[in-house]
Structures are given as C-alpha cells and as structure tokens.
C-alpha cells in the first residue's frame, strides 16, 4: 500500500540555484532567522484530509484522484492510508501534520463504534509518529460532513445533535491530547444559517458559547496543555457562518468569557472570502491577543469560493509573514497547509510539487520579512508617524486622563488646524517589494 | 431661495389605488400596525447631506445637480439651503431629519470660526424646526472630508487631529442636544487604513476606544439623553475601515467597556458591502443588544461601492422590517434615508419621487412584516424547530449545568445518532413572499 | 417506486387568496396575458437533474436527500426514477421538462453501452410523456462530470476526448429529436481553464468553434427543427469558463459563423456570477438577436458561487420578464427551473413547495410586466428620451450618411453645448415597483 | 512653476543592489531582452491626468494634493502644468506620455473655444516634446466628466451630444496626429446605463457602432497611421458599461465591421473589476487579434472599485508580461501607467516613488518572463499537452474535414474512453514562481 508514494524522491534542501523540481530552494529547517530556526518560525504541517483524503470531487464532477486506499474494506483502507500518509510525510520532511477524526477513520454505526474505529487507526498513526518523529500540530473533529450536522453541530435546533457533537469533540480532543498535539481546532462549518426565517441567532449564539466553554473546561479537566483554536470563515457551506472573521470571533469570545482561553486559527482563503487580506487578519488577531495558528493557502482573486490553493507568491505572503514575525511567532501554533491540489493534478508527483512549492514560498516569505525587519526603515517610518503621541497631550489621552472638553480646549487653543503629512505608501510599498526582488 | 422647491406638490396619503406619482400609497403616519402607529415604527428621516448638499459629483464627473445655494456667499447660501430644506421637508411631511455639521454650515478658517458658523446656521434650522414641527433624529460631525482627516480622525497618527476631531464632535454633540436630537451618530469614514505598512492597529484601536469613551462621558456631563450610535462600514473611502460590521463593532465596544452605552446605526448598503444581508445585521444587533437606528438605502447587487440608492423593493425590505418588529422597534432610533438621487436625476421633482418611493417602500415592507407576524406560521415553525431544547438535557446545557463529559454520555447512551429534520426553507420563503403578493 | 411522491397533493390554481400552500395563486395556464396564454409566455419546465437526481451533496458534506432510486441496481433505479419523476410532474402540472443524458441513465463501460442504456431509459420516459402529455423543452449531454472531461470536452488537449464528446452529443441530440424536444442545449462546464500556464486559448477556441459547427451541421442532417442553445457561465467549475456571458458567446458565434444558427440559454445565477443582472443578459441577447431560452433561478447576493435557488421575488423578476415580453417571448425556448432545494430540505413536500413557489413567482412577475406594458408610461418615457434621434441629423448618423467631420460641423454650428435632461430613474423605478405593489 | 519638481532627483539605473530609493534597479532602457530592448518591449508612458491633474479627491473627501497649477488663471495654469509635467518626465526618463484633451487644457464656453484652448496648450506641449525627446503614446478625449455626457457621449439619447462628442474627438484625434501620437484611445466611461428602465440597448449599440466607424473613417481621411484603441471597463461610473471586457468589445467590433481597424487598450484594474485576471485579458486579446496597448496598474483585491494603484508585485505581473512576450509585443502600443498615488501621498517625492516602483516592477516582470521563455519548460509542457491534435483525427477536425457523425464513429471504434492526464498545474506554477525568486 505504501508503495503508492514509493516512486517519489525524498525532498532535500539544495539552495536557490537548484533546478531539481523536488528540491527545497529556500526552506532550510535549521537556518537561523532573526535568532530562531526557520522550522521554529514556520512549524509547517501537512493537512491529512486534503493530502490523503481529497479525491478531486467538485460540485460538478466525480473524483479524479485515484488512491489505492479509496476502495476496499473501510478500516483496512484507513490503516493503509495512514501508512501511505507517513511515507509521504517522511519524503517531504516536514515536522507536523494535522487531522480530522473522520479523515483518519471511517464513521461507524454509532458514536461508540466511531470512537473505537478512530482509536484503532490512531494507534497506527501513533506508531508511525514514533517511527518518524513527525508530530501533531492539531487535531479536530469533523462536525460538518454527516447529514446529522446539516443544521449545525453546537448550534443545531436539536439538542441531541449538540450532544452527539460533544461526544465527538470529547473523543477527538482526548485523542489529540494522547498523541501530544500542540493545539486543538474547532471549525464550525455548519455553525451558521441558510435562512434567517428558520433561525434564532440569539439562541444559537448561546448554544455555541456553551459548547466552546464546555470544550475549554474539558481541556483543563484532562490536563491538555495545548491551545484551543477557533477557525473563522464567513460562509460556505452555510449562507452565513457565525465565526466570520477574527473580529467577529473576538467579540464572541468576549461575550462568553473565553478570552485568554481560546485563540484563532486563521486561514488565508477564509480571510479573503471575508473581504480581508490575510495580513489584516493576522495583524488584527495579534493586536487583540488571539493569534494562534495559520492555515496557509490562497484563494483565487476572481472566484468567490474556497479554492484552497497552495501559496506560491512569496512577495504577497511576505506581508503576512511580517505580521507573524512582529507578533513574535505563533507560540504553540504553526502553519498548516489547508490546501489541495487541483482536480486535474492526478499524478502522484503533483502532490509533492504542491507541498514543495508551498513550503518554499513560506520560507522565502520569511526571508523577505527578515530583510524588512533588519533593514528597519519600514518599522522606523511607522514609529515616526505616531511619534506625536509621545507628547504630553497624547499620553494624557491614551492613559485616560483627558476629556472631550479638554481635548477640544487643546484644539481651540492652537487656533489653526493640524497639517497633514504624507502617508508615504508608495515608498513603503517599494521598500517592501524591494526585499522580494532577488 | 425657497422658491426652488415651490413648484413641488405637497405629498399626501391617497391609498394603494392612487395613480398620482407624488401620492403616498402605503405610508399613513397614524395607521396602527401591531398596536403602534406607522410613524412610531418607522420614524422616517431625511438626510440633509444627500438631499440638499449632494450635487451629482462622482469620481469621473463634475456636479450635475444645480441648486441655487451651491454658489454665492457661503454663509448666505447655507441659510438659504436651510430654508429650502425645510420647504422640501414640509412638502414631504416626514417627521425627522438628520445632519452633519459641515453640510449645514461651511468650515471656517479655524475650529472656533467653524463652530460659530455652525451655531449661526443652526439658529435658522431651529427656527424652521419650531415652525414646522420637524424634529432631529440625529446629528453628527463630518470627520472625513477635510484633508486634515485623510489619515483618520480619532485614529490619526497626529494627536493634534484627534484633538481637532474632539473639538468638532463636542460642538456637534452639544448642538444636537440643543436641538433636541434623539441620537448622536459617529461614522468613522477615515478610521481605517490604506496600507498596513504604515499602520499600528493596536495603537489606533486604543485611540478610537479613548475617543468614543470621551464622547460617552461628555454626553453624560451635558445631560444628553439621546443614544450614542456608531455606524459600521467595511471599506470606502479607506481600504479597510475599523467599524466593519455589527459583530466587529460589538467586539470593539466590549473591549473598551462601552456596551450598554453605545448602540449601532446600521446601513443597508454598508451591510451588503461587508458581505451581509441588511436583515442579518439588524438581527445580529438585536441579538447582541446593540440595535440602535437604521440608514435605509440599497446598493447595487453588481457594483462594489456604496451606491446609496433609495429602497424600492418592499419584499426584500420586509425581511429587515420583520427583524425590527421582532426586536420591538428601534427605541430612540429611526429610519434615515442615507440615500441619494442618481447623477442624471437633475429635475427638482426627481428628489421628491425618490423620497416618496422610499417611504412607501418602507411602509409596505412594514405592512408585509405585520402580515407575517399576524399569520404566525413562520414564527411558530421557528419555535417548533428549537422545541427540543425545552427538554431536560437542553435546559441543563443552556443554564451551564452540563459538561462535555456529561453531554458525551448523553449521546453515547442513546446508541444511535440524531435524525435530521427538514429546515423547510422553501415553504418559509414562499410564506414570506406570499404576504408581499398583494 | 412511484409511491415516493404519492402522498403529495395535485397542484391546482386557487387564486391569490388561497391559503393552501400547495395551491397556485397566480399561475393559471390558460389566462390570457397581452393576447397570449400564460403557459405560452412561460413554457415552464422542470429540471430532471436538480429535482430527481440532486441529493444534497455539497463540497463539505454528504448527501442528505434520500430517494428510493438512489440505491439498488443502476438501470432499475433509473427506470424507477423516471416513473417517480413523471408522478411528480403530473402532480405539479407543468408542461415541460429538461434532461441531461447522464441523469436519465447511468454511464456504461463504453460509449456504446452508455448510449444503449440511455435509449432504454428514454423509452420509459417517452411512454410517460405520451401518458401524461408532458413535453421536452430541451435535452443536453453531461460533458462535465466524468473525469475524462476534467480538462474540457471540445476544448480538451486530447482529441480523443473531443471525439468521445462528439459521440455523446450526437446521441443526446438524436434522442432529443426523437422525443420531440423543442431545443438542444450545450453547457460547457469544463470548457475553460484552471491555469493559463497550461492552456492555449486560441487553439481551444478553434476546437470549440469546430465542435459547435459540427453540432449545427448534424442538426440539419437529421432534420431537427429545434434551436441549438449555448448556456453562458463565467466560472465554476473552472477558474474561467469560455462561454462567460451573452456578449462573449455572441462574439464567439460571430467568429465561427454561427450567428443565425445558435441562440442562448441564459441563467439568472450565471448572469449574476458574471456581474450582470438577469435582465441585462436577456435584454442584451434580445438586442443581439440571440435570445433563446431561460434558466430560472437566483443566486445569493452575498455568496460567490452558483446557489441555484428557486426564484421567489416577483418584483425582482418582473424586470427580466419585462424584457422577455418586449422581445415578444422566447420562441421555441421556455423557462426551465435550473434550481435545487436546499440541503436541509429533506422532506418530500419541500420539493413541491419549491416548484409551486417558483412557478407562482414567475406568473406574478409576468402579471407585473403586463401591467407595466398596459400602463405604457415607462415605454413612453423611454421613447421620448430618444425622440431627438428622429430628427434629420440623427437619422443621417444612424443610416451611415454622416462623418466625424460633418458631425463636428453640426456641433460647432450651434455654438453652445447640449443641455442635459433628467434620466427620471427614481420615477421610473417607483412606477415599475408600483405594479408589484398588490 | 516648474520649480515644483525641481527638488526631485533625476532617476538613473543603478542595478539591483542600489539602496537609493530613486534609483532604477531593473529598468535599463537599452538592455536586450529576447533580442529587443527593454524600452521597446515596455514602451512605458506616464498618464498626464493622474500624475499632473490628480488631486486626491475621493467621493468622501476634498483634494489633498497641492500643486501650484491647481489655482490661478486657467490657461496660464495649464501652461505651467505642461512645463511642470515635462520637468517631471525628464527626471523620470521614460520615453512616452499620454493625455486627455481636458486635462491638458480647460474647457471653454463653446466647443470652438475649447478647441482653441487645447491647441494653444498643445503648442507648449509640442515644444517640450521637441526639447526633451519625449513622445506621445496616445491621446484621447474626455467624454465623461462634463454634465453634458452624464447620459453618454456616442450613446446619449440626445443626438446633439453625439455631435458634440464627435467634434471633440475629431479635434483630439487631429491633435494626436499632429503630435505624432502612436495611437488614439477611446474610453467610453459614460457609454453604458444606470437603469435599463430608460435605456434602449439596441439603439445605443447602433449609435456607438456608428461613432466608432466615423472615427476610423476620419483616421484614414487625415492619414493618421496610429492605431485606434478601445479601452474596456465593466462598470463605474455607470452601473453597466458597454465595453465590458475584451471578449465583449471583440463582439462589438465584429458586429460593426471594425475588426482589423480597431484594437484594445487593456487595463489591469478594469480586467479585475470585470472578474478576469490581467493576463487573461491580454491572452484573449492576443488570441483574437485585437491586442493593442496596456494600462498598467492594479486594483485592490478586497475593494470593488477602480483603485488604480501602481503595480508593485513583479511575480504577479510576470504572467501578464509573459502573454505580451508570447504575442510578440504590443506593436504601436505601450504600457501606460493609468495609476495614481494614494490620497495621503502628498509629498512631491511620493509621485516619483510611485513611478520608479512601477517601472521597476514592469522591468522585473519582463525579466522573469524572459527567464520563463529561455528555460522553455513551461512552453514545452503546453505544447506536449496538445500534441495529440497533430494526429490525423485532430487535424481533420481542425481543418473542417470532420463531422459529428465521423467523430462519434471514431470514439465508438476505440471501445474504451480516453484516459485523463495530469494538468501539472502545481509544477507549472512552481516553475513560473521560481523565476521570480531571485
């Protein structure tokens, strides 16, 4: 079974001048960047679902990607899939992977059966982890594919579904803990609505708040030290998803007393679907203290759905990477490729090309960010732009010592209005681009 | 000067069968709807800026709308504009108007001059209000047109701009109070950024939080009983505006301890630019306790900027109106037409057509919502959909008495999974549409 | 098998005041509208695929709609499906249906097998058509679901795929002819590209032109009198689809000498995905002489993919219907519901609700258009707006008798510039809305 | 007056390692790229309007960019502006500029006056051209800013406006000819509609066809050897613009017999507003034989209006440049910066930063395209992908010798279906990205 990926070469760093398409040209795990290894900054992870379960299905067409483990006895296939996955991961040489429960093992007749099946396959996964040294960045439970979740998991109008979801998450969280996962993620694909006509927003918000609270409580009960992460997305599959974007989830966490307990797993393509740049979402999360982990992919700038493509423009990505570096890195988080190969990419090596290009794009983006930081001019320009706030008036305002009346007096006293200064956007953009320029 | 609108007829209710284009066919101020007058539900208001200051300018073309008060001595013109505005408002017969400081009176050389000019014109406005009985729904300060605000008002990198804005808002808030305004609005048109490269999100958030806090404190100091409202918009003029949507502003208010003090003024076209339906934003605000007031307009579903057209599809609007009715109305808020006539609509009667069509669309939407409520089937279906949560397990969860473990046990105990139920979306949509059908 | 829809009532016209949710309130087949029956204007058709093959699958979730014919022996199920479909169609009482070859019968091992299977099931379909009097609006071949078509059908880089597609279309076209179909449709779901890096636009255009030419030639060879229709869509499943919109396909037809031979099947949701209103696409096709048939559905104004919902806002749709009426109707074309019930709509009656609401929305939109036409003011205003062109200068220009020099002389002679006139948009929108007002 | 730009340095090529922000690091006019000079490939041009007339005005705010020639006597200012413009152009060192008539000289009371004013200022421009050697890439007439054009120029319901536009275009075309312009452009900013309710699409299409035909005839009459170019844009300022995109304009030219006479000026930001990538539009125009010239800018991927920013991501742009190189260059066309500095960029040097960054981005994109071509693997993969079409069956099809029947026979004969091949998208994207990687 593992022979499926046997023909693929093992990926190695060969430097920028290599013309070997399977070589890494930028990603060098132990290279120091601003005092930390590249691997530590990026903590790159492969998504089990896209890379080993994705089959090229789309809303208008049948699967195109043949994999030996797509047919045959379900449990045997799941075990074979695990072996093949780690054979691929070994060749790729990245330190982490991520999984959904249902991608690892097939659903059984009952929740109890499903739990047992998951445990059985995870034993094999754990053995492979030990054998290879590959670690788990995060686990999660798939609360969106099965018809029972069509109207939501935690936000379902039927409390039995809530209970079922709780059972599934409890098991997946414990499994993540057992495997030494660094984080646990919740993506509420069906936590949203299709029409307001049958939806009670306030009630569903209360349900979702309770659910997440119970997850956090359980994490502490079992001693899981990883981070609980919520992954925002604005829509798709629902018409409207509750965890729209970073700012929305922040408000949700504040409302339910979960700030400090929960952080965010931000995905590039979800950011753009929500009308944000990826770097906006990262910078916002950092400013609000909820930056957790990243899903690295890209959408198509002209298509309005989640295309989940591998990143391949390092200059674009360097602005996101800059925000990560400014935030001091991702802590327990990392950079998971929530990306899939295209439907026509049916050759085994396509999967490897995709990952090699993705990791190298990330590495190059990090190197660009490093150069921006070391150069210092962009940060300096930003600091100088706000320098006026270091004065007496600014400090009084920021520390809460002023009033509208006092500020108005300050303005009236000068007699004339403030004089605008250039925002220097073109120069700053040139500068940022320059470090991507070779 | 007021002769400009003299040729326009006075608008009266004539019932659905009237073929008089200037007649109201649905809006009957004192008609009772679910126990309250139409006027009380809608509290309709005319936007001084669009209706009396708008000139047809667009990014590719010069003004097309001639008004006598667009030229001549600035202060004399402002006084004439006020007279003309009230001549129009009288003919239209709506109870409210809204204003920005700089649309009422021209900016002076200094803040002190500008304040004095505003006061002088507002005296004339106040006289017209007394003469006509027309009231002020809300006032606001224009903190976005002048170059000094190009990099933000409260979020400006220069604290002198912050101070200037404070002086302007203090004066506009006090003027609003003096005129008996029911609310005071802040729209942060320039509170956002054009590039993250020169922007410190955390610092600007702190500035904005301080500013709004100072406004709230000043409101209490001067005894203003109206509501302070923030108006969300996702972008335009900035690349990214901080007050993106209801959920984002909710999080901001929570962060700065302003929940309970500040509500939201939700605009239809801003909602759609942010990727939401208007009814989503209203329902969200109601669920979160921050529903304040509405800006009634519509965007173009194929264009990506703020087209600010008058509403004209009552069935569409009925879903928004339904959420207002469910929320028990808007309190001190109302429904302001933040809408403008098209650039080619250069005849004086075009302005009247626009308002008559808009108010009648709102009135008909309210009547549709009334029929939905009285029929009861939609609300009943929604209630039944969540009925399972009234059981013991659901109540334990919602009141905080459950845990992930207990819920998992509940799910495991049943042995089989929950069975999905139809969401009945097509039937509910048919039902809602039926009440718009004549 | 046909018992699946047995519990559904037979749909009848009961007039606007009926509160029976399964009654037609506006669609009265023989009601005369502007001298033609409603049925003749609308020629409504049910889409075999969405209504009888759709299963609630989406990119994030498994099927939710159970139908007895979704399992069991493939050919037996296909025959049962045909019986059930006509049982539904009888209850609904619409005159037409549409089909794809692969939705009627399963694909076989070879093209020859597939053809034989299709023929066998179509015999059953034909018997049902004779029994019920229900007719075929159009047939088509599914050239997008099978992996062989992943890189296109006619535009595939492999000519063997082109040949296979030709074989499939030949068979489907002949079957459509045999069943008395009024049109034959081609939708090029995979005729587009995912990346320009592997795509030769010019060559693929040549292939597509040849393919369509061969279809037209074959139509004449077999004596098919129906219309060949191309269905535009801008994207999805491909990143970019060649038949983007009406104007694009018009250019394609002109380039390949196919104007006069081929018309367009315009879909509402495809129009909006392409950045057009539905009425724009209809009016454009009418102006260019290529208006053929319509796919009636709607997209979600906030989502960026093909949601294919049933139409339910008659006022919105009345503007599209107005263009159809102005064009004198659709000729051999009709109005096919290319619409599907939502994933949560799992009850059998949901399917009936959807169609009843859809047909009534169309009927009411037609009645609104009738009122607009009979009132005459909108058409009159439009005629008057262009009246100047009836003068000598205008006629000389339009008939090709003028030159830039002569026109410039005309302008210079007057000495002053032309004076703009109001476009009267608000009044016209009010008027159009008024006829939707009950 | 020309002292405004006096403090700016003269821009020179200093190579990739220069840290001088005003140095060119990639653009070296005479460097040979694939056998032609960089300057010949790019033919870069500065847009007179954005660079010397733009003032920072936006729909929500007043001008921010002070220029000495924005006030004072209109004609004197226009002359001063011309001097300043050429002072800037000299410092920048680009070979071309482009202009609109009304940006060069102010409109007069009558068309005759306006023409005279334009001639007078163009005399100064011509003198500056002779002095500096800077050439005119194209001229155009502004048919969108003045209120007379609010309902269109050629498509205006009033034929007097058509005549006025003819007079203006005749004059601008002759002026362009006199100045040795390489092309003449028509952008129909107001050739579209705001509402279909007052619009006759067919009639307006006829008017527009006549207008363009008259322009082409006049070009020949006066012996202008440059190319007539139409510039597509989908919307803004109108709700819907007729010249939507390349494919739409192609159809228009075909319909009016203008293929061979007219080519296209494609703008990046217009392409993305229309839902296309820039490279798609270029490749389409090349395939259809209508590739003329380019407007180099970029839009914001999250904003829905024309932001007209300077290009700054060479990897992105390299895909567009690759299509230009494949098409053999732009002939008489060139690459005009239809780009403007941001509203906050109020310092004189911001304008220079913008152009330096833009030209260098273009140069680097060209160098990336060169490397892609020289490497050859991408082109080779594409050629191999279609190799099957070189066989007997493929050639028979492409040369018109086949039929649906014959092709079907071909498919049936083989008995089994074609086998899909990988599209290799990830590998090709990696390859393309690699050449941008330094």
UniProtKB/TrEMBL annotation, chains A, B, C, D:
Residues forming the catalytic site: 100, 103
Compartments it resides in: Cytoplasm
Alphabetical list of InterPro entries matching this protein: Xyl_isomerase-like_sf (IPR036237), Xylose_isom_bac (IPR013452), Xylose_isomerase (IPR001998)
Protein known as: Xylose isomerase
Enzyme class of the recorded protein, top EC level: isomerase
Organism taxonomic ancestry: Bacteria, Pseudomonadati, Pseudomonadota, Alphaproteobacteria, Acetobacterales
Keywords: Carbohydrate metabolism, Cytoplasm, Isomerase, Magnesium, Metal-binding, Xylose metabolism
Record-listed Mg(2+) 1 binding positions: 231, 267, 295, 338
Transmembrane segments: none
Entry's EC annotation: 5.3.1.5
Cofactor(s) required, per the database record: Mg(2+)
The record's free-text note on cofactor binding: Binds 2 magnesium ions per subunit.
Reactions mediated catalytically: alpha-D-xylose = alpha-D-xylulofuranose
PROSITE patterns the UniProt entry points to: XYLOSE_ISOMERASE
Binding site for Mg(2+) 2: 267, 270, 306, 308
């Amino acid at each position: 079974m593992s022979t499926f990926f046997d023909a693929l070469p093992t990926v190695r760093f060969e430097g920028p001048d290599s013309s070997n398409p399977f070589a890494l040209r930028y990603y060098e795990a132990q290279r120091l960047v601003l005092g930390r290894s590249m691997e530590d900054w990026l903590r790159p992870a492969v998504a089990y679902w896209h890379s080993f379960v994705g089959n090229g299905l789309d809303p208008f067409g049948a699967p195109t990607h043949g994999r030996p483990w797509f047919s045959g006895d379900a449990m045997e296939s799941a075990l074979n899939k695990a072996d093949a996955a780690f054979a691929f991961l070994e060749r790729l040489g990245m330190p982490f992977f991520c999984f959904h429960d249902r991608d690892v093992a097939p659903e059984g007749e009952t929740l109890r059966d499903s739990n047992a099946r998951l445990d059985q396959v995870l034993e094999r996964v754990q053995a492979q982890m030990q054998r290879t040294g590959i670690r788990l960045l995060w686990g999660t439970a798939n609360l969106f594919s099965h018809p029972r979740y069509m109207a939501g998991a935690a936000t379902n109008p039927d409390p039995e579904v809530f209970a079922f979801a709780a059972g599934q998450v409890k098991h997946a969280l414990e499994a993540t803990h057992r495997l030494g996962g660094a984080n646990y993620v919740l993506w509420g694909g069906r936590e949203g609505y299709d029409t307001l006509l049958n939806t009670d927003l306030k009630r569903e918000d209360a349900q979702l708040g309770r659910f997440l609270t119970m997850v956090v409580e359980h994490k502490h009960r079992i001693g899981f030290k990883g981070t609980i992460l919520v992954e925002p997305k604005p829509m798709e599959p629902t018409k409207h998803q509750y965890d729209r974007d970073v700012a929305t989830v922040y408000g949700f966490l504040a409302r339910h007393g979960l700030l400090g307990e929960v952080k965010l797993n931000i995905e590039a393509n979800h950011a753009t679907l929500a009308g944000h740049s990826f770097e906006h979402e990262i910078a916002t999360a950092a400013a609000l203290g909820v930056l957790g982990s990243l899903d690295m992919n890209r959408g198509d700038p002209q298509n309005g759905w989640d295309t989940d493509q591998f990143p391949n423009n390092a200059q674009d990505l360097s602005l996101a990477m800059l925000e990560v570096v400014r935030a001091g890195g991702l802590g327990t988080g990392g950079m998971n490729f929530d990306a899939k190969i295209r439907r026509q990419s049916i050759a085994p090596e396509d999967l490897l090309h995709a990952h090699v290009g993705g990791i190298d794009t990330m590495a190059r983006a990090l190197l660009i960010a490093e150069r921006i930081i070391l150069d210092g001019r962009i940060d300096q320009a930003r600091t100088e732009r706000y320098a006026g706030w270091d004065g007496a008036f600014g400090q009084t305002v920021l520390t809460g010592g002023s009033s509208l009346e006092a500020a108005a007096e300050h303005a009236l006293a000068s007699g004339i209005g403030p004089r605008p200064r250039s925002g220097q956007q073109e120069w700053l953009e040139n500068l940022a681009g320059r470090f991507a320029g070779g």
